Amino acid sequence: MDFSNREIISDDYHDYVIKDGRLIGEFEQMYKNSLNTPWHQDQQEDWFDVQLSIMILRQHVPFDSIFDLGCGLGYFLDLIYRRCGSNPCDLNGYDISQTACNRGKEIFPQINFHKINLMEDSGSFSTHNVSIRTDRKCLFMLRGVLWYVFPEIENVVRNISSIVNLGDYFLISQNFPPLDSEFVGKEVIPEPKAILDLFGDYFKPLKTLWYEDKLSEGNENWFVMVMKRK
Length: 230
Hints:
The protein contains six helices and nine strands; from the N terminus they run ββααβαβαββαβαββ. The protein has helices at 27-33, 48-57, 75-84, 98-107, 153-163, 192-199; strands spanning 18-19, 22-23, 63-69, 85-95, 112-115, 138-143, 169-176, 203-211, 221-229.
């Protein structure tokens, strides 16, 4: 593998994400070159954190519009729509990779896909693709994304807050390595409470769940939180 000039020669999606203790973040290359579906997005129907998210969200269903920030190929968005969305439901997926958006549209033609960079400076962040009807019950989602945007986390928080309207719902589902281990991004998000603190100025938490797998040394610990825009 060659990381010079940030051009990566590999068919393993892991090599484009986090490698040798540092964030790589080459998601466009990843979706172009990966042999397998990144993060096994197409196999998550029965994953525990997904079921937790559905369990919490179903207290507030149905949602008329669902917006998935960092949607990848759209599998999670489609799953949440089938379990928590109204019929019809306005479905919008946003990702930094145009290739992901294009491929996602082929898999899920009912979803509107848009390229977006949540890390942009807040002054130049474009919301022209985010069309929200204030008379609809809206859900925004951010699943497993924070480890890939933490270097610009303040921009990310402000940008998300700028497109979520008063009273809209916001789901964050984030996996963690063992909290007593060293991991990329720990200096910014050392524990689940840090996520609550980051978004607390803009959102009111409705329900939080922390699931910790003491037998695993991988990223098997999940923090799931549903909030409402203040």
